[in-house]
Amino acid sequence: MPEQPYEPDRAIAGTGAGGAMDLAASEAQTLEKTPGGPEGTGPQAKPRSLWSDAWRDLRRNPVFLVSALVILFLVFISLWPSAIASGSPLKCDLSKAQDGPGPGAPFGYDGQGCNVYTRTVYGARTSVTVGVCATLGVALLGSVLGGLAGFFGGVWDSLLSRTTDIFFAIPVVLGGLVLLSVVTSNTVWPVIGFMVLLGWPQISRIARGSVITARQNDYVQAARALGASNSRILLRHIAPNAVAPVIVVATIALGTYIALEATLSYLGVGLKPPSVSWGIDISAASPYIRNAPHALLWPSGALAVTVLAFIMLGDAVRDALDPKLR
Q1: pLDDT of 5 over the 60 cut
Q2: Torsion angles phi and psi, residue 46, rounded to 5
Q3: Measured between alpha carbons, how far is 249 from 10 in angstroms, rounded to an integer?
Q4: Is the pLDDT confidence value at 44 over 60?
Q5: With bands split at pLDDT 50, 70 and 90, how would you rate the model's confidence at 324?
Q6: Which residues pair with 105 in a beta bridge?
Q7: Rounded CA separation 125/306 (Å)
Q8: Is 249 helix (H, G, I), strand (E, B) or coil?
Q9: Is the dihedral of CA 99, 104, 105, 109 positive or negative?
C-alpha cells in the first residue's frame, strides 16, 4: 500500500480538540521563551493601567522633569529655608537701605535695609503653603459637590449649577478686596479660605462633567445590574476614572493661587507685615524701582518662575493623562 503524503492542515484537523489545545499551549510557551518579544505578550505579563502609562510618559518628558525639579527645590526651601539663607528675614538695617549686592547679601538690600536674598527664600514658604492648602481645599470641596451632583442629578444638579453661576459672576480680585479688607488676622488662613470659597466652582464643574461621562460606561451599568450600591459604584468604579481631569486642573490652578496671593498682598488686603511674602516685597520695592531695581527684580522673578513651574507641570500631566494625545 503506497505511503500517503504528509499534509499539515489534515494533521492539525485530525488532532481533535485536545491536540489543538496542546498546540496552542506550545505556541504560548514559545512566545514566552522567545527573547526580545513584544512587551505584554507572555502569560505572566500584567496589563498596564492609565496611571502606569502616564508615569512612563512623564519620566520621558523634559518639561515635567524640569518643572518637577524646580517644585522640589521650592518645597525644600519652604521646609528648611535656613539651609540656604542665614539670618532672619525681619532683621533690617536702615544704614544699608537700597544698597546693591554685597557679602552676605547677594541680592542686595531693599528700601528698609532688609536682606532681599533672605526675604526671597523665606517668601517661598508662604507662597507654597497658600498654594498647596488652597488647592487641596478647592479640589476636595469641588470634587465632592460636583461628583455628587453629577452622579445623582435632578434637583441637586440644578442647584449646584445655579450656585456655581453665582460664584462665577464674582470677580476674584474685587471679591478679595471686599472680603479680606475687613479681616484683621495676620495669618495665611483668611487668604486660603477666600480662595477656597471662590475657587471650588471651577473644580466642581470639571468633576461633574467627568462623573456624568463615567457613569454612562458599560462597566458602571454592569455593576449596577449586579446589585452594587451607589456608594460602591461611585467610589470604586466612577471616582478612579473621573479624577484625572480634576488633578490636571488643580495642578495648573496651584500656580494661579500663588499668583493670586501675591496680587492680594501687593494690594494690601492679603498678608500684611511683618509676614514675609513675595507680594509684600514687590509692593514695598515698587516706589524704589529706579534707585534699587534689584529689590523688585528678585521677588518678582521668584514668583514668575514658581507660577511657570506649576503651569508647566500641569500641562505635562494633562498630556500624559489624555489618551487622545498619545
Answers
A1: no
A2: -100, 135
A3: 61
A4: no
A5: low
A6: 102
A7: 12
A8: helix
A9: negative
For helices 189-214 and 239-267, give the axis angle rounded to 10 degrees: 150
Grid cell listed for 266: 501687593
Burial 33-46 (b: 16+ CB within 10 A, else e): eeeeeeeeeeeeee
Task: Spell out where 23-74 has E strands.
Answer: none
What is the largest distance, in Å, between two alpha-carbon atoms of the chain? 119
- How far is residue 297 from each of residues 221, 273, 303, measured CA to CA in Å? 57, 20, 10
Beta bridge partners of 92: 114
Residue 306 is given by DSSP the state H
**Strands (DSSP E) found in the chain:** none
Which residue carries 487622545 as its cell?
A: 324
Give φ, ψ of 273 to 5 degrees: -55, 145
Q: Which pLDDT value is given to residue 156?
A: 87
| Domain residue ranges in the chain | 53-325
With vertex at residue 193, the alpha carbon angle to CA 191 and CA 194, rounded to the nearest 5 degrees, is 65
Question: Cell digits for 309?
Answer: 513651574
Distances (CA, A) of 47 to 27, 149, 226: 20, 33, 25
Q: Which residue has the cell 473644580?
A: 203
**DSSP secondary structure code for residue 87 in this structure:** S
Can you read off the three cell numbers belonging to residue 201? 466652582
- CATH, range 53-325: 1.10.3720.10
Distance of CA 74 to the CA centre of its chain: 15
- How far is residue 285 from each of residues 74, 242, 272, 290, 293, measured CA to CA in Å? 23, 45, 15, 10, 8
Residue count (the chain): 326
For 114, the 3-state DSSP assignment is strand
- What is the rounded CA–CA span in Å between residue 12 and residue 237? 44
pLDDT digits (tens, 9 = 90+) for 160-195: 889 998 999 888 899 999 999 888 888 899 999 999
Amino acid, res. 228: A
Say whether pLDDT at 31 is over 70: no
Bridge partners, residue 115, by sequence: 109
